[in-house]
Amino acid sequence: MKPLYFISIAILALSCSNPKSIISETDAKKIDLFGSTKKVDNLSPYIDDISVIRLEANSVIVPTASKILTLDDKIFLFYGSEILEFDQKGNYCHTIGKIGNGPEEFIHLGDVCVDSKRKEIIGVTSKNEIIRYNSTSGSFIKKTKLDISGNTVDGILPLKNGGIAAYFSNPYKIEDKEYRLLHFNEDGKIVNKSMEAKDSDFCISMSFKPSVFQGYDNSYFLSYEFGSCYSYIDKDGEINSSFYMDFGSKGLSKDYFKDVSDPWMLVGDAFEDKRIKCPTSLMTKNNIYVSAFGENSSVWNFITDGEKGIRWQSSSADPVPPVFFLAADKDYYYFLYLEYGHSETTDPLKRYVIDKTGLELKDNDNPAVIKVKFKI
Question: CA 346, 61, 116, 98 torsion: positive or negative?
């Protein structure tokens, strides 16, 4: 039987394309992820600091989180129907937004981001509306309908002057061309388009793992292709290619699904294949973290400064799924720890957390946020 997290991956598969973009890729550094890292099993020599934030359970229940945002001294946990605010000690502050059909409400959010200059939490609804809340008080600011129809927005990145960039797993068609990224002003009007999609390919869009993550200094990182690919960065409201994640011959080829009449038939085989696929990336100020799937849905983790680093693998035979990064600030990567009574884990990062901190979640506890500062 396949692990639960493999089943989640295969839930959502969409046709996608190789990026042809106005965003320059010529200056992006190619990083040889296997050549620049060494394999380790014990993370102890490579972790400079770790802290556990136990989320208060008296006032609110946190079932899970698909994304973490940070702003000032606050942590925001997002999982589709709620945005929960906590301080750095895990004290619950308030819930942002409300489920409903009213002008200040939403049924479901596809993604969230932070406009740090305006102190706004921004979400995109399942109706392709941009909804804004004050990050300090949680109060509603306004809701704006994006000037599009059809495709649903899968991810958002903050731009200058209140604008946002919307990412589409299934490219958005304008006239006779398709684009992965549309730029909108504060009023919801399209002001630019990029990542033109051509030469259709097939890839897996992971329903439980975002394509866009918040990194250091409220930068945002976007990656979405199947094998070796670019990571894009939104820094100070401008989007550029950040670096190229190169897995060499160990990466699954973009031609894996080429000339196949029904690519769905190969999804299971792709995740059993030992080659690397579906990478996502994130950065602190000084290093890069890449997470990608390997053989039988195992997970490869790479930490590198581009020249040297470490890598480790989380086994698919582990009794619980591996941890995934959900955010980063200048120094730390943020993870959500969800395991209750699974101290037998073989995952190197979880093993370190348990051995170092003695963390154990009881039935009535909320998940814990883990902050890790690596040294390489």
Answer: positive
